[in-house]
Amino acid sequence: MKRPVNLTPAQLRRLPLPALDDSGDKETRGRVLVAGGSTENPGGLLLAAEAAIRAGAGKLQLATADSVAAAVAIAVPEARVFAFPAAGSEGVDPGAAKKLAERADRVDALLIGPGLVDEDAAGRLAQGVLKRIEKPAVVLDAGGLAALRRDPRALAHLEGRAVLTPHAGEMAQLLGMERDEVEADPEAAARRAAEAFGAVVALKGSETIIVAPDGRACRYTRGGVGLGTSGSGDVLAGLVVGLLARGADPLRAAAWGVFLHGEAGNALARRHGAVGFLAREIPGEVPRILHRASSP
């Protein structure tokens, strides 16, 4: 078993992101589709959307319930927004999975979950999309993770092109464990999930553990208490999907995403205090940190 490597700027330089092409355009940095949002929580989608662009993705598309699509389009003018039938106030109707999958196969990276408040409906939607797609790398977060409770092999055909971003409670549900068991040995839980689902797993916590199916692992230990705030996980998922769109492999995207998320929180804590900053403030810190960490 490979011991987790601590994520530091020096270590990340050994896992460089794909080089930017100075002569390229937005197409060369990839297309992202984020599926989520609901009448009760459109904000989760908005947070993930901005994070994906701040991580450097070239083109942004959003898929959400028709009840909030117009408002989302105004709030994120950088995005192309697709409206799908709503399931009450809970988000996109699972019956839209086929059409959503058609959109997803035209992008480089897909995130399902932010802002989907009904886990059962979100799980059915994500399961329906996953079984139909072939092209994109995938991030499952929040409600999207419920697809794996319905079908543990839902990601098998993607051949490792997936990242899961659960917190301890979601991990416990995925593995049929108690939350305190996960928290007692998060590395073991992350390794079990990575092997079971064939995906990179970033298990969020005071220390975030990232494990690939082949056993490679890393750990971020500098996360501050302020990151435990509403919407913070949506930002992390958006960072990871943006990095996937740029061409980073799943382990690299997860490692850089976790590092950028944590360091952005630390920068905000130095300015505002350990707690009290907002998830919406995290993405704005990312470009500067990304530039600095990527520089020789």
Tell me the CATH topology: UDP-N-acetylmuramoyl-L-alanine:D-glutamate ligase
* CATH hierarchy, class: Alpha Beta
Unreliable runs: none
Count every helix, treating DSSP H or I runs of 4 or more residues as helices. Answer: 12
Derived from helix and strand composition plus strand pairing, the structural class reads: alpha/beta
Tell me the helix content: 40-55%
Order of helices and strands: EHEHEHEHEHEHEHHHEEEHHH
Distance between the termini: 31 Å
Lateral arrangement of strands in the main beta sheet: 1-10-9-8-7-6-5-2-3-4
Shape: globular
- Rg (CA only): 17 Å
How many individual domains? 1
Strand proportion: 5-15%
CATH homologous superfamily designation: Ribokinase
Largest sheet geometry? 10 strands, mixed
Secondary-structure arrangement, i.e. CATH architecture:
3-Layer(aba) Sandwich
Mean pLDDT over the full residue set: 94
Number of strands: 10
Highlighted features:
10-stranded mixed sheet, alpha/beta, about 300 residues
3D structure, described in words:
By secondary structure, the chain is of the alpha/beta class. It has one domain (30-289): UDP-N-acetylmuramoyl-L-alanine:D-glutamate ligase (3-Layer(aba) Sandwich), CATH 3.40.1190.20. The chain is built from twelve helices and ten strands. Strands 1-10-9-8-7-6-5-2-3-4 form a ten-stranded mixed sheet, with helices on both faces. Helix 5 (119-130) links the parallel strand 5 and strand 6. The model has no long low-confidence stretch (mean pLDDT 94).
